[in-house]
Structures are given as structure tokens and as C-alpha cells.
Design a protein that fits this description.
single chain; alpha+beta; Phage tail protein beta-alpha-beta fold; 3-stranded mixed sheet; 3-stranded antiparallel sheet
Amino acid sequence: MTRRSGLQGNRWVWSLPLLLGAVFYIAVVYGASLLVAQEQEPGGGGGGMGGMGGMGGMLPVIQWVKPQGEKPDWLTRGENAIRAREKIRRQLDQEGEFSFNNQPHGAVVSSISDMYGFEVHLNEKALEEESMTPEEPITINTKGSLRNVLRRILDPLNLDYVVHEDYLEITSGNSASYTVLAYNLAHVASSNREGESIVSTIQRMVRPHEWQEGGGTAVCHLIGSVLLVKASERTHEEIERLLAQLNAVRADERK
């Protein structure tokens, strides 16, 4: 009598490698399809001027849980600094009458400080870079917001201003430091695709020479719907106007 081997009697053993290979292939294809779908989902990209960096849309979305308990000191200090700076920026929009006839730059700065109730610091070292002194005469007779009047005074002299937490600094255009502000584009856009388009428009239309892509040092990064921008005060002002114009157009479309 012929004796059959155990392997011949258990044919499923021979099919096991094929079965495992098929399972592995299906898992790989399914996993790849999930990644592609994740990249195509609205809100899953988050690019714009630097995008997400590294793996880009290939990284899985991980939801964070907001910690319970008291707000940390570093967050409180940051919020206080933002409020202090925004208070001065709001005061820049206040209307006033300005009349200076051949008055020294230093005297004009002191008068503005008295009028608006916050310190205005004149960076004398920066003035020296522009071959000027605090005695440089200024003549202007006009009405308007402090923001616009400062531009009319400073632009011809290649000077600029920087808003700090508790004072306004007058400095040279080349020495003006950059500040970081956050813009929630959800106010003017309905998706991450629109957000990325807005970022691209800002880069092309708002002082393009100032961005890193144009040879400058200003940068911005889109995180979800929040656009973080590190740029000069003038660039921030122009971004605000552009976003306000876009919002006005969208409001008309919704009517």
C-alpha cells in the first residue's frame, strides 16, 4: 500500500504562502488609497508659503485635546503682549490735527507722544544711518489718522515705525524690525484651498520684494485656517487692507 505524505494530505499548507501574499498586497493597496484620499480631503493640505513641510500631506491628521486646568503663564504673557500692541495699533487709527512748522524731529515725536498718551521713541542710531539727527526739521499741517500722518512724515526721510508692546519706535526703513501677527482666514475664505490662494495672492501683491521668495526676509505660514506672518508694520497694514477688500467683495456676493 502506498503511503501518502502528511504534506500531500494537507493541501492548505501549500496555499498558505499565496494567501499571506494576497493579504499583504491588499493591505498595501488599501493603505495607499487612504493616504491619497487624505491628501485630497478639504482641510487636509494646509500648505501655502512653506506648506506643512517635510512629508506634507502624507502625514496623518492627529487631533489634539486641549489641556485642562489653569492657563499657563507663557500663554497669558503672550496674550497680554498682543493686547498691548493692538491697543497702540488702534490708537494709530485715531483722527487728529497736526501742525508742525520747521520743528525738530525730536520735538514732533514728543508732541505726538503727548497727544496720544503712549511713548514714541526716536531711534537716534538709526537716524545716523540715514545721515540725520533729532534736529532734522519737519513741516506738516494736516488732519487725519496718526497712521497716515506718520507715513507722510517718515516716507520722504526713508524712515519707518515699529509697534512694540508699550511704545512706538521711529527708526530707519532698513532697520525696522519685523513683528509676527496671526490672521484667521476663516473670516474671508471657506476652505483650505481658498486659504492657499489668498496666501499666494498676498505674496504676489503685497510688497513682493519683502518676502523670502522675492529676496527679502518676511515669511508667512498657513496652519489650518490661521496665517502667521512675520513682516514689517507696513506689510501688515497692506495685508489687512487686502483681506478687508476681499471680505467686502464676498459680502456683496452673498447678498
